[in-house]
Amino acid sequence: MTNTHSNPNQANEIVDQLKASGALDELFSKIDSGEVELTGDGGLVPALIKETLERGLGAEMTSHLGYTAGDRDAKTTTNSRNGTYAKTVASEAGDIEISVPRDRDGSFTPRLVPKGSRRLGGLDDMIISLYAGGMTIRDIQHHLVSTIGTELSHETISNITDAVLDAVMEWQQRPLEEFYPVVYLDAIRVKVRDNGHVRSKAAHIAVGVDMDGIKHVLGIWVQNTEGASFWAHVCAELANRGVQDVLIVCCDGLTGLPDAIEATWPDSLVQTCVVHLIRAANRFVSYTDRKAVSRALKPIYAAANEEAALTALTTFAESELGRKYPSAVAVFENAWDRFIPFLQFPPALRRVIYTTNAIESLNYQLRKVTKNRSQFPTDDSVVKLLWLAICNIEDKRAREREKEKGKGKARKATTGRLVEGQITTNWKQALAQLAVAYPDRMNPYL
């Protein structure tokens, strides 16, 4: 049972008053001695919920009939009370049997526990929270039975989590801002059952940085393979939702993406993630040499300009490590045209666009959620779980921002969910440098 208008401060004040009056001392004594159990069958918490529900249902019946029980003189209708019927509802505290009042003409429709409802609202919220945290439906079944003694079917739990699909679709189709200075694109791999076969698919996630430096998840797309036609569809969808211009798209060298970007936003710059290049360069490097190779590659991406970077690459290629691992040299040579764009920018802006780490930190948390699932039944189920997980992550971030705000740190006031991330590091400096690099495109939005 949930109450969106509840006041936690008021509840705490009531508890403090009861403690101060000594009214809770006897109860605490019985709890400590084991005479009273808090939860489970016959526990104090279920009993309090039962009493609260039955009192609320009685108040609803009084409002429906227009007179209180036993007050026949105030009766102004031919309808009257007609006893009660028993009903068991599942709750966060376990199964609770309540007595629901009924009237003679059957016109009473309870709102606190609606007809046909077998669960209190808080239990649905709990199940969705557990699902968003990475638990499978079977895990949730076991958890509910072992912790609160409530047994729900696989279908019931699945239906509860499916109830968010409308919200997911609304989010996936919501209007976007017309301008994002930077957009990051990355993907995580998931296994999905497709036409009787389990296939490895990529769940692609786009994160846009707005003018205030706040990162927003723009959408999630599940696809078998990457290619120009797929990315053209994604870019067209973002454009149809309102994105008119993007300055820089940072990605990991996805096939077909540059063509799709240029077809949708002709003036956008596509930057290959340097961290992905370094990982690819180390793919065939022995473990003992990886640190040395990574150090030797640093002068390439830390160079002052393209000429200096090319000189550094040549130096590495001619070194002992370069001759030992020619594949590492080939990685940079093959990606050179998409690697060098960020070299034209000053250091503060380079730190923003040279890597997709801004989205990989999110993906790392999403992988923790998806790792418990050997496979997903549908593409929609992938998007549903990732959306719930992102909302869950953002709720945590929002609480952290509130704590920082309370400590006196100046941060932009943001709310969790749908779906805002942290403010990009050194964003003010990067924004100023973007304004210098792209004055005509930036000025209308400053």
From TrEMBL:
InterPro entries: Transposase_mutator. Keywords: DNA recombination, DNA-binding, Transposable element, Transposition. Belongs to the transposase mutator family. The lineage of its organism: Bacteria, Bacillati, Actinomycetota, Actinomycetes, Micrococcales. This is Mutator family transposase. Signal peptide: none annotated. GO terms for molecular function: DNA binding; transposase activity. It comes from Brevibacterium aurantiacum. NCBIfam families: transpos_IS256 (NF033543). One of its GO terms (biological process) is DNA transposition. Required for the transposition of the insertion element.
